[in-house]
Amino acid sequence: xxxxxxxxxxxxxxxxxxxxxxxxxxxxxxxxxxxxxxxxxxxxxxxxxxxxxxxxxxxxxxxxxxxxxxxxxxxxxxxxxxxxxxxxxxxxxxxxxxxxxxxxxxxxxxxxxxxxxxxxxxxxxxxxxxxxxxxxxxxxxxxxxxxxxxxxxxxxxxxxxxxxxxxxxxxxxxxxxxxxxxxxxxxxxxxxxxxxxxxxxxxxxxxxxxxxxxxxxxxxxxxxxxxxxxxxxxxxxxxxxxxxxxxxxxxxxxxxxxxxxxxxxxxxxxxxxxxxxxxxxxxxxxxxxxxxxxxxxxxxxxxxxxxxxxx
Length: 311
Known about the structure:
Elements: H1 7-19, H2 22-29, H3 33-47, E1 52-53, E2 60-61, H4 63-91, E3 95-101, H5 106-120, E4 124-130, H6 133-142, E5 147-152, E6 159-174, E7 194-196, H7 203-215, E8 218-219, H8 228-236, E9 241-245, H9 246-252, E10 260-263, E11 271-279, H10 285-302, E12 308-309
Parallel strand pairs: 3-4, 3-5, 7-8, 7-9
Antiparallel strand pairs: 1-2, 5-11, 6-9, 6-10, 6-11, 6-12
Helix pairs in contact: 1-2, 1-3, 1-4, 2-3, 5-10
């Protein structure tokens, strides 16, 4: 391999491919457009291969460029992993971790985790982004996120999962509905009921869809919630019933709010699994273990009786 092939060239090339535009790529990496163009030309020269078609359509890859792009991302990820290993060995737990979390969990749990992490590891900076699980998975794969706190399973050969706790899903119904007059709800009581759920970009959707089929109920096809709050409002209007995570219920539904009634289902054994997910090639394994310990500690101490911690 020629000596003048550099990580900078690969980084600029990946930015160009992902933005599909020279100006946007230059802005991402913080250089002028001519400087970025020269680095791309230098990479082509080092490889002896044309990577990008020149024209008015922006950055269009050649067939060879597509092959190089896949390898370039892997090389940059390995280089980043190497830097992370060295940094962790040299300075311990510090630096920045980019954490993604699902909106069905983050607002009701993460503030306590971030506070505990700051106390345990004050030199560690955690940058949080919320998003639907499928979007976060794409960001994890592309290196935009280092770690996800989300519902499991992810089912990807490129990622590793660590289970943290199980969270019951509570049955929520309008307070003036016939179901609300029952002290307990059995599977048979849900037959022919309309069930509200989030869109299929959330793992919770598939879980609820599976239960709906098993008990003889049906998903409400003309409405998919964009948030747990939206599901709760539709439930209050008697548009259907919904299964809401226990942490959300504890945080957002108080006894004073009498528009909805919440009941346990299957003795709180209808649960979802929450855990951490990271790339298989990530160098943050030691840090993940430490963060997992902190998260489990928060779950045990702050949410005892609400969630069930897994070893």
